[in-house]
Design goal:
The protein is of the alpha+beta class and 262 residues long. The protein is built from six helices and ten strands; from the N terminus they run E-H-H-E-H-E-H-H-E-H-E-E-E-E-E-E. It has two domains: 75 residues, Orthogonal Bundle (Muramoyl-pentapeptide Carboxypeptidase, domain 1); 157 residues, Cathepsin B, Chain A (Alpha-Beta Complex), CATH 3.90.70. It is 25% helix and 23% strand. The strands form two sheets. Strands 3, 4, 5, 6, 7, 8, 9 and 10 form an eight-stranded antiparallel beta sheet that branches. A two-stranded antiparallel ribbon has the order 1-2. The longest helix has 15 residues. 39% of the residues are buried.
């Protein structure tokens, strides 16, 4: 199981295992990326709920992930209503919760890169178990490239060797929040790169931030990815959609199985 794609700096990298309740990235003028996009979406929702809908001059923000002057102005409008006082125009943990963020889960996972192209399954398992180690497939079958044979029956054997359980992949925000609250989630599936090449891969979902909207459009996941060799990478992405989750480099991963410790 190997993936491709350019490396990318994380919003905030993890350290040692596990610390629940970490905050999503602080957003302020000049911020860019998925956290900024989620802030714009939540600002639109909260300002539209105000008695005057933000006033005659209010126009919904473009959710482009670029937190510029218009986004800052919307934030200042929201803060004046939420706090009835002036406040620094930035979105920290307290303001995220005022905006409606309900789920904050951040397991501090040690990043483990895969040493070779087919060993993402082992490195991902090591991250869930707490750090660098060699994880055996147990009685599960491997391919000639030392990848896990991807049938669900074989993945079940691998899960049993670790005393883990396999659960059906879910696109339900509340169900996944319940799943990840206890521990990071080992996720394996089929990926499709920007050029259409297909491959298998395994990653760890280590964090989740959400306002609970069932559509998942304002839910972020933190991914600990053992690819690229030998370092791996940490990044944030939007919640699972019909085609899976988006990895850096225009790559999509459609989950086939999720494994969690018992």
């Amino acid at each position: 199981m190997a993936a491709s794609g350019a490396d990318r700096h994380p919003l905030r990298s993890g350290a040692n295992p596990y610390n629940k309740g970490g905050s999503v990235e602080t957003v302020k003028r000049g911020s860019r990326g998925l956290a900024a996009r989620m802030a714009q979406m939540l600002l639109n929702d909260r300002i539209n709920e105000l008695p005057d809908g933000g006033g005659n001059n209010w126009a919904p923000l473009s959710t482009d992930g670029i937190f510029g002057p218009k986004s800052e102005k919307a934030l200042m409008l929201f803060l004046s209503q939420a706090y009835q006082m002036s406040r620094m125009p930035l979105i920290d943990g307290e303001v995220w919760r005022k905006l409606g963020l309900k789920t904050e889960i951040d397991h501090r996972v040690t990043l483990v890169g895969q040493p070779a192209g087919g060993l993402c399954w082992s490195s991902a398992a090591a991250m869930v178990l707490g750090g660098p180690m060699s994880v055996s497939p147990g009685a599960a079958n491997l391919t000639q490239r030392n990848s896990l044979e991807p049938s669900l029956a074989n993945l079940q054997v691998f899960a049993q060797s670790l005393d883990w359980r396999m659960v059906p992949p879910t696109q339900n925000v509340a169900a996944f929040a319940t799943l990840i609250r206890r521990s990071p989630v080992w996720v394996a599936g089929q990926g499709t790169s920007a050029n259409g090449r297909r491959y298998g891969h395994a990653v760890v979902v280590s964090g989740m931030w959400s306002d609970g909207d069932p559509a998942g459009s304002s839910t972020l996941l933190r991914i600990h990815d053992p690819w690229p060799t030998p370092r791996g990478r940490i990044f944030d992405t939007l919640f699972f959609g019909p085609v899976g989750i988006r990895l850096p480099g225009g790559v999509w991963l459609r989950p086939d199985a999720m494994l969690v410790p018992r």
